Amino acid sequence: MSQLLVFAGSTRQQSFNRRLARVAAGMAQEAGAQVTLLDLADFDIPLYNADLEARGTPPDVLRLKQALYAHPAWIICSPEYNGSYTALLKNAIDWASSPVKADPAWQDGIKPFRGKVVGMLSASPGALGGLRSQSHLAPLLLLLECWLAPQAFALGQAGSAFDEHGALVHAAQRERVRGVVEQVLWATQRLHGN
Ligand SMILES: Cc1cc2nc3c(=O)[nH]c(=O)nc-3n(C[C@H](O)[C@H](O)[C@H](O)COP(=O)(O)O)c2cc1C
Questions:
Q1: 168-186 pLDDT tens trace
Q2: Domain edges within the chain
Q3: Overall pTM surpassing 0.90 (yes/no)
C-alpha cells in the first residue's frame, strides 16, 4: 500500500489549494493508498535565517523533515503568487532541505527529498490555475532529486470549481486530478515497491 503525503502551499482558511489537497487525498484513499493530509498551518516554522538555525533547528522543522522522509510519494498543491510558488512553500522546503549539523540523522540535507515521487497540482481563481507556480516548483524539486510525475493539473477559475462539500463540480477536472493521483501511485509502486 503506497504511503502518500498530500499538502498545500497555503495556510489560508478557505484556500483553494487546501481544498484541492483534500480532493486528491480522498481519491488516493479510494485507490487504496494510505494518505497523510499535512497542513503547514500545524507547523510553527519561522522564516529561514541561518543565524537562527545556528542556535538550533526548530522542533517543527524536524517534524516536517520526518513527515517528508516517511512518505515515498507526495502530492503538492501549489498556489501561485506573482507567477511563482508561495513564500510559505519555499520557506518550508528551504528549512526541510537544510542539514542539521547537530543531528547525525539529518546531516544530508536532501535526505527528506531524494527519490520521492511527486505529483504537482495547483489552483487559482485565474485562468491559468497556477500553472506558472508549477513551472518554478518543478526545477526546485528536481534539484532535490525528486521524481516528478509527468502528469500535472492546474485548476483555473477555482472560485467556482468546488461545491459546498468541497468536491470538484466538473467531472473532467475530477478526472485530471485522479490522473495525477493514479500516476503518482503507479510510479511509487515501481520505484519503491510500496
Ligand atoms: C501576492 C499575490 C500574488 C498573486 N499572484 C497570482 C498570480 O501570479 N497568478 C494567479 O493565478 N493568482 C495570483 N494570486 C491570486 C492567488 O491565486 C489567490 O489568492 C489564491 O486564492 C491563492 O491560493 P489559496 O486559495 O490556496 O490560498 C496572487 C495572490 C497574491 C496574494
A1: 999 999 999 999 999 999 9
A2: 3-192
A3: yes
